[in-house]
Amino acid sequence: MAQAGTAKQPNILFITVDQMRFDCLSIAGHPIVETPNLDELARTGVRFDRAYTATPSCIPARAAIFTGQSPAHHGRTGYEDCVPWRYEETMPGELAKAGYHTQCVGKMHVYPARSLLGFHNVVMHDGYLHHNRMRHNVAAKDHFDQVDDYLVWLRQQVPSADLVDLGLDCNASTVARPWELPERLHPTNWVVSESIDFLRRRDPSKPFFLWMSFVRPHPPFDPPQAFLDLYKDAEIPEPPVGDWAMQEDPMQLGLNPVTDKGLVPKRRLKQAMAAYYALITHLDHQIGRFLQVLNEYGEMNNTIIIFTSDHGEMLGDHHMFRKAVPYEGSARIPFILNDPGNRLGLKRGAVRNEVIELRDIMPTVLDAAGARIPDAVDGRSILELARAGSASPDRQQDASLDSAVQGWRPHLHGEHAYGHLSNHWLTNGKEKYIWFSQTGQEQYFNLEKDPLELHNAVNDAEYADCIVHWRQQLIEELKAREEGYSDGEQLIAGIAPRSTLSFLKA
């Protein structure tokens, strides 16, 4: 184990993107998306194919990253702005204690916006946040002009420029158009440029922890034209639509550019999908740009790299868009661990199928750094899994596999307060059980036979025992919760959902 505060500690490069689906990697078999740099990180590292975010929206997902905790313990069970972040132990804070120079570039999405949460410095672009943009909002302590470093920089390059110049809403998952300024001014390029500058000005006597946090491919879907051109004529498959999904749209919800469901005109949807994929390839190229410079500084082999997303994007699956729902497009995320210098002894090229979650990032990073993992952390280090090789049935398992996976979580509990679609769900990566807390509706998917979640098998006789098992598991998960969703004997529908648990507001 590395010694805290010594040169033996590796640098940590933590790369997150916002709203990227689990399947949008060439190496994962996507028929359209091109991700050469991420593919190479996966080919020479370890890809976790069953990674999830327990609460799939920006704020609770980032709380899991910062604290290593489950939603029940970090307290954010839905999307709610302007609730202060007062966590005593955070991933960057623990790394700073262990001798690291800690830096974030890009999206934090905490409150107040300038809270460092253990970082020595933050250069910020959170994207368009409504509570900061509204000048009349007395609840917002930080107006956008004060907290967004990218916007200040952009206006130095292009006077009076703004994030809304394209006319695209920050939640518009069904409309797109190309970026109209030079590519170097795009927020994706800016995050990399600022991260490269950090390499120049970092403390050379310390290992560094750099969180390179991109807003895209979260809307607006505004890729530079060169990347949109890669996809504009591609044969893009139509999204899957389950037998349980809405089949008609009498209210024409799909015409709303910021809808979360509805039948979107096919031409508009194809353009949005092309732009979404283009943003991912743009990100991939810029990540490749940073890795080249990291190598120029001689730090590539001294750096552990983690790549993931905070949540996914439904992108028309089952006529749904955005996130917060428990389906694979929303809750399942890409996850790659790479160790160019082979300091950790990872099984290069392995694909792991255990269910991991964003809470596992903090203990993994601290484990790699040789730093103390706080008792309050719920997640577990995935390093032993990454050393154990592939668990695929067609490959011989390493002798260390049994010890590595012994006691790994049997399932993940996820949730999201989301109005009438508020949900709780359980998965082991092979099955998924969903309970909608406001209506009591249940869904069950056999992910091995039905990976696209096309058939709700909750009423199929062959799965009756499975559903009883999963329902009982959820009753146990929720019986101690303050909302009252479970009395220990049954699930109780109709309880008002809470986006934030009471102890955070005390």
From TrEMBL:
<protein>
    <submittedName>
        <fullName>Arylsulfatase A</fullName>
    </submittedName>
</protein>
<dbReference type="Pfam" id="PF00884">
    <property type="entry name" value="Sulfatase"/>
</dbReference>
<dbReference type="InterPro" id="IPR024607">
    <property type="entry name" value="Sulfatase_CS"/>
</dbReference>
<comment type="similarity">
    <text>Belongs to the sulfatase family.</text>
</comment>
<dbReference type="InterPro" id="IPR017850">
    <property type="entry name" value="Alkaline_phosphatase_core_sf"/>
</dbReference>
<keyword id="KW-0378">Hydrolase</keyword>
<keyword id="KW-0479">Metal-binding</keyword>
<dbReference type="GO" id="GO:0008484">
    <property type="term" value="F:sulfuric ester hydrolase activity"/>
</dbReference>
<dbReference type="GO" id="GO:0005737">
    <property type="term" value="C:cytoplasm"/>
</dbReference>
<dbReference type="GO" id="GO:0046872">
    <property type="term" value="F:metal ion binding"/>
</dbReference>
<dbReference type="InterPro" id="IPR000917">
    <property type="entry name" value="Sulfatase_N"/>
</dbReference>
<feature type="domain" description="Sulfatase N-terminal">
    <location>
        <begin position="10"/>
        <end position="371"/>
    </location>
</feature>
